[in-house]
Design brief:
The complex is a heterodimer of chains A (about 110) and B (about 775).
Chain A lengths: L2 H13 L6 H13 L3 H28 L3 H41 L1
Chain B lengths: L11 H6 L7 H16 L10 H15 L3 H18 L12 H6 L1 H35 L3 H23 L16 E6 L8 H6 L3 H26 L4 H4 L3 E4 L3 E6 L4 H4 L2 H36 L3 H24 L4 E6 L10 H20 L10 E3 L2 H21 L2 E3 L5 E3 L9 H8 L10 H17 L10 H6 L1 H17 L4 H15 L11 H9 L4 E8 L2 H17 L4 H14 L2 H19 L1 H7 L9 E4 L3 E7 L8 H12 L2 E7 L13 H34 L5 H11 L6 E4 L5 E5 L2 E3 L1 H27 L1
Parallel strand pairs in B: 4-5
Antiparallel strand pairs in B: 1-3, 1-4, 2-3, 6-7, 8-10, 8-11, 9-10, 12-13, 13-14
Helix pairs in contact in B: 3-29, 4-29, 6-7, 6-20, 6-21, 6-27, 7-19, 9-12, 12-13, 15-17, 15-22, 16-22, 19-20, 21-27, 27-29, 28-29
Classes of the chains: A mainly alpha (about 110), B alpha+beta (about 775).
Amino acid sequence: MAEEDKIKIISSLLDRLFIFTSAVKEDIIAKASVDLNEEKFLALKAELEKAVEWQKQLVIEKMRQDPSLYDKIMEERKKITEEILKAYEDKVKKEDQDKINFMFLKIKSL
Amino acid sequence: MTNVGADENLPVTDVAEAGKEGEVPGKKREIKLKEQVEQLLQDVLPNFPAGDVKDKYQKILRAYIDLTEKDEAEVVRVMREIEAIVVKKEIAPEKSVGKERKEKDPDRKAVIDKLQSHVDFANFLDALPEEMKRLFVQRETATISEKEKIESQIKALKDKATGALERRYWSKILGENLKEHDIVITVLSPTDKYTKNKALNDESIGPSENDNVIMKRRIFTIKHFTAGLLERGVKPEDVNKLNLDYNFKFGLFKIPEAMQEQAGDLQELMNKVCGEVDGEMTEYMLGRVSDVLKRLGNEVENLEGEERNIKQEKIKHLEELRDDLQTNGYRTNYGISEVGPKGDEDKSQDERAIVAVSEAMQAARISSIRESKDKGDYGLNYDENQLAGKIEENVRMEERIKSLSNEITDKKGRSFVIFDSNNALNIDVVNYVRKEKLAVKAGDKNNEAILNLLKKYIENLNVVDVVKPFTMADIGSGDWDGKMEANREATKKLKSLERPEDVESVVKEIQERLGTDEKDERFTSREKFNQQASAINNCSYLSFDKIKVGPELLSSFREAFNAISKIEDEAERKKALRELKLRAGDETTMRLREFRNDIAEKLQSEEYRKRLGLEPGTKIIGDVQGGDEVLLAFDKTKFHDENVLDDLVAELQGKHNIRAVEIVVAEANRDSKSEAGSATRLEEHADALKKLEEETELAKRIEEEIGSLYFDKSLDHEKIKKMLVESGINNNLKVKQDDKGNYKLLVGKKLLSEQEVVRLVERVRAESEIVTVRKALKSAA
C-alpha cells in the first residue's frame, strides 16, 4: 500500500477519536509520516481501531448512566451548527456589503 | 484496552420493561442507544470545510462524556502506546563521533583554530614579561643592525597588547576620540530573515561558524573602507586610525572634520563599500553553506530517528539560507551621523559621542527596514524625523492591533493576547515573532494582517537598540571614565616602557587587565577561559543563558515610544528623544549585571568556594559571552561534594529566568590524561563546547514545547503547572554525559531523552484540556 493511502487510513481513524485533541492527532500524523513502514502501520491501525471501539463503549456506558445525555449533546451540536451557519451568513453579507461599498466608491469617483 | 461498557450490564429499567407484548425492549433500546452513539460520533456538518467546527464539537463531547480519572488514565495509556509505535526505532542509540570523521570535519577545524588563537593570546600574555626583558637586555649589547630588528620585535609585542587594550571600554569612541563635527559611520550586520545573527546562530550555521562570519565581515569592511579612502587620497597612516569598534552587530568608523573634504561624498563611498562587502560575503557564505550542506548530506545517510530529524531540519534551514543568499545576497546597511557641536544642550563630549553613535545606528537600522530602496543604496544619513516617524507609526499600529482583536491565533489554533489587561506587551509573542516561530493558517487574512503588523511593529522598536557595555549612570558617576582612564594609563605606560627593571610592574597590570573580562572583573577573559578550561583534565562545563532578554528590551523600548508620543511640547519631545538615544537598553544592562553579579557572588562565597575546592581570590574561569550568557568551567577533581553544581543551578534559577545547560565530560570518555598534549586537550575542549551548543539548542526546543502550553488560552494553566512540577519538567534543563558517553537531558532527577520530554508535555496538554473544558461547563451550568 502506498504511504499516502496508509496515512489516509490513519487520519480517518484519528478523525473518529474525540478523546484526543487536534494537536495530538496532528502530531501523531506528523510523526507517522516520517516513516510509516508496513509493520508500524499495522500496529498503529490496530491500536487506533481498539481506541475507536473503546471510545464507543465509553459513550454507550455514559449514555446508560445519563439517558438525557444524547439530547444535551445534540442540543449543543445544534447550537454549533447554527453558530457556524450564522458566521457563514455574516461573512457572505459582509462580502456583499463590501462589494456594494466598492461600487459606491467607483460611482462617486466617476 | 479495558472494556468500559459490557452489554450484559444493562440498567435495571430494561429488565422492568421486559415482557411487553411482541417486543424485546432491552435489545431494542440497546439498538437505539447504539444508533444514537453512532450519530453522536459522526462529525458535525461533515461538508463544512472548517476544522475549527470539528474541534469545537469534539471538545463538547469530551466535556459531556466527563472522563473519570480511570478513563483519563486509559486515554493517556493509549496515547503512549501510539507514541511508542510511531517513534519506534526512531530513537537511535547515540553514536560517538568517530575520530576519523571528526578529523575531517571542517567546522570542527574552524572552531579549534579560533580557540587556538585565544589560547595563543593567553600564552603570549603569560610570556610577555620574560620576552620583553629578554629583548631589552639583548638590545643593550646589540649591534646597530641587530638593534633595529630587536626594536621592531619590541614594537610588535607592544602593539599586540596595546591593540587589545584599546579595544576595551569604548576607549576609541569616548574620551577625546570623537570631537565635534566628526562624522560617525556604522555598518550594521544584516537584519534579514535568514542572514540576521539570531537566525545564523539559532537555525542554520550555529554560533561558532557565525563567529567566523563576523570575523570575515570585519576584515572585508575594514579592507574596502580603507581602500575607498585611499582612492580618495587619504594617507594610509590616517586611514588606520578610523576604525573605532567592531562587534557582532556593527562596525564603527569616524571621519574627522579635517578629513571630510578629502573623503568627499560619504554616501557614495559607503554604498560602494557595502556593495563590495556584500559581494564578498555572499560568495564566502555560499561556499561555507555548500561545504556544510555536503557534509551534513553525507552524515544524514547514516543516521536514524531523532538524530536524523535534527540534521534534516538543519539542512532545511541551510538550504533556505543558500536560496536567500543566491536570490538576495548578503545585505549590510550603513548609517551616518555627526557629533554635535559644543555649547549645544549636551552635557559632555562623551554624551555627544554616544548620541552620534546612537543616531548612526538608528539610521542604519531604519535603512535596513525600508520597504523600497534602489539597488546599490545601502544606507541613510541620520534625520531626527526618521525616529519620530517610527514612533508615530508604532502608536498607530498598536491602535490598529488592538482594534483588530488584540489577539493572534496561530495555525495550530492557539490564541495569544498581544497587549494584556495591564496594557503590557506580551513578550512571549514578541519572542515567537522574532524567532519566526509564529505562523498563521494559510488564507487566514485577519491573523495574517495582525502578524504582519506585529513584525513591522517589532522591527520599528528595534531601531533604537545600541550595544554599549555601560549605562549612562556609569558615565555620570565616573565609574566608566575611571576604568577607561586606568586602561588608557596602562596603555600609555606599556607604549613608553623601555627599561628591563620596569617590565615587571607594567606588564603585570597589562596581564591582569587582558586576562580579565571587560564587563566583570571577577571572571577571566575569553582567551584565559579557553586556555585554562582546556587545561583541566576532568572538566565540568556549565552554561547559563538569561532567557528572553531581547523581548524584554523591546518591551522597554515600546514603553519609551509610547511615553514620547504623548509629549506635545516640541522642546520636551526633542529632549525625550535624546534621552532615548542615550539611555535605551540601560535597564536591561543593569539586569544583566545583576545576573552576572549573582553568579560571581555565589561562586566566590565561602560556602561555594569550599564545596568547589577553589582557592580564595582566584578568578572565576568563565567566559561572559555577549552579556546574557555566561559559560563556566570547573575542575571536578577539586569538588568536595558532587551536588554543588546542581545546587548552584537551583539557587540561581530561583532568582533568574535562566536556562542552564551542563556538560559533564565523564572522565572515562576523555583521552586527555595529564600527559596529553595541548592539541588533544584543545580538541576535547572544542568538542565539549560544540556539544554544549547543540544541547542548548535542544533545551530551547523543549522550552518552546513547555511555553506553548502556557500560550494556549484554552488550557488550564494551574493544572499544567501542577503536572509539570509532578513530572519534574520546568525550565531547569541540564544535559549530562552518562558513563557510556551519551548526553541526556536531566529533567528533575531523571535522565530523559528529548522524545520522552516531548511525550510528557503532550500528556500534560491533553489532560489539562480535558480539565479546562469540564471546568468551563460546570461553571456555565
